[in-house]
Write a structure and sequence with these properties.
Length: 378
């Protein structure tokens, strides 16, 4: 059993860590305050080839595997979780499913622009009545000759206010309960518009907006996969995506632990650094231990995915473990910083706000427990 990263993975990890520390961390607080899409970060990631991880050179990608994406995502989230969220929505939820399920024509048409950062990608399934239960999607796609007519509204869509290419899921009414189908929609298509932009608690530079479809006509050539295969495409995409969210959560937890540890060594109370008190040191030790355990779960899920083996349960375990750890780590970080930790100029408040989202999107903690318990009792 080999727990060592390959030389290629180590090189990627070091390169992204240096980039994130030198470029992303310096602007993370400012981007959070402005609550605007992190365009400069997006363009820099494109220049480094990060938008094409896991996609072959044939389509302009950078190659690599699921573990490569996880390594990059953790390092980026450690510096700026908003930027990691942008990468997840663009690469894992939009470009990757086009790569896995698209026709040759679709891959050649859309992937080069996505991996070069010429176009911003997004993924739209959530509706007001369809969150954890995506079977309740009410958006419709009605066949009309060589086109489909889309009607409905998607909410909370990451990159939604700036996206150029949107992977959207709708039901074909005549197929009944098995009608979920995926479509690629381009910005500027008549009948498709961007709706309300959201004021978010965390990851505020990864902007979210509604997507509105009113008699939006798209060609059959823009359907991703066969009719009625949308649920399978979604579930596979979200399983891969959960590996990325687990990596995001690890990055946030790691940042919080590093800052809290540094502060605990410097902060003096009762004539000694607070790190010397068991009440502080042992709790930080717990987070350190759980961080390493969560990383092993993450690597296992990524390895299984790369081997073509079933990984859904392991991805759910990794996401559950890492995201709940991120909340514990950031809550402890605020406690270690004391009164200063509660101030908005503390580094901990952003980590805390960002961490909460990881427990919610791409499947809440409750959904992960449903998946895990389903495997346990199967």
């Amino acid at each position: 059993m080999d727990f060592a990263l390959s030389e290629e993975h180590k090189m990627l990890q070091t390169t992204v860590r240096d980039f994130a520390s030198d470029k992303l961390a310096q602007v993370a607080d400012e981007l959070d305050r402005k609550q605007e899409f992190a365009w400069d970060n997006f363009k820099m990631m494109a220049e480094m080839g990060l938008l094409g991880l896991g996609i072959t050179l044939e389509y302009g990608g950078s190659g690599g595997d699921e573990l490569s994406i996880a390594l990059a995502m953790e390092e980026i989230a450690r510096a700026c979780a908003s930027t990691a969220d942008i990468l997840d929505a663009h690469l894992c939820l939009c470009a990757a499913p086009v790569y896995r399920y698209g026709t040759e024509e679709q891959k050649k048409k859309y992937l080069p622009a996505l991996v070069k950062g010429e176009k911003v990608g997004a993924h739209a399934i959530t509706e007001s009545e369809a969150g954890s239960d995506v079977s309740r999607v009410r958006m419709t796609a009605v066949k009309d000759g060589d086109s489909y007519i889309l009607n409905g509204t998607k909410i909370f869509i990451t990159n939604g206010d700036v996206c150029d290419i949107l992977l959207v899921f709708a039901n074909i009414p005549e197929l009944g309960g098995r009608g979920m189908t995926a479509f690629i929609v381009e910005a500027g298509t008549p009948g498709y518009s961007k709706g309300k932009k959201y004021d978010k608690l965390g990851m505020r530079a990864a902007t979210n907006a509604d997507q509105v479809f009113e008699d939006c006509r798209i060609p059959v050539a823009n359907r991703l996969g066969d009719e009625g295969r949308g649920m399978r495409i979604f579930l596979d995409t979200i399983d891969h995506g959960r590996i990325g969210i687990a990596a995001q959560a690890l990055g946030i937890a790691r940042a919080a632990l590093e800052r809290a540890t540094e502060y605990a060594k410097q902060r003096q109370q009762f004539g000694a650094p607070i790190a010397s008190f068991q009440a502080i040191g042992w709790r930080l030790a717990d987070v350190f231990t759980e961080l390493e355990a969560a990383r092993l779960l993450l690597y296992q899920a990524a390895w299984l995915a790369d081997q073509g083996q079933p990984f859904r349960t392991q991805a759910a375990m990794a996401k559950l473990c890492a995201t709940e750890l991120a909340m514990r780590a950031t809550t402890l970080g605020i406690q270690v910083f004391g009164g200063y930790g509660y101030m908005m100029d503390s580094p901990m408040q952003r980590y805390f706000r960002d961490a909460k989202l990881t427990e919610i999107y791409e499947g809440t903690s409750e959904v992960q427990r449903m998946i895990i318990s389903g495997a346990l009792f199967r």
